[in-house]
């Protein structure tokens, strides 16, 4: 795991996992707490956390894509699309990022 922090692709993989976990937390814990228990406090915390991780993932994907000379039509668009599909970052980490 410590090797992941040493490269930009490794850090992108970490962001992908964190972004996916933040979405899971938001959808499976925070939103039910808001609507079933009438407690929106966790949504107020996790919403901005997820949004920040989402934006960091987008920016880092573009940065890594340029630095690594990824062909947009082959890799970059798939990685970018992954964060728009719920839990797509887990899939893209396993299918693309882990192999780079």
Automatic annotation (TrEMBL):
Transmembrane residue ranges: 12-33, 45-63, 75-92
Location in or out of the cell: Cell membrane
Organism taxonomic ancestry: Bacteria, Pseudomonadati, Bacteroidota, Flavobacteriia, Flavobacteriales
Record keywords: Cell membrane, Membrane, Transmembrane, Transmembrane helix
Topological relation to the membrane, as annotated: Multi-pass membrane protein
Segments forming domain DUF3817: 10-96
Main localization of the protein described in the UniProt heading: membrane
Name of this chain's protein: DUF3817 domain-containing protein
InterPro entries on file: DUF3817_TM (IPR023845)
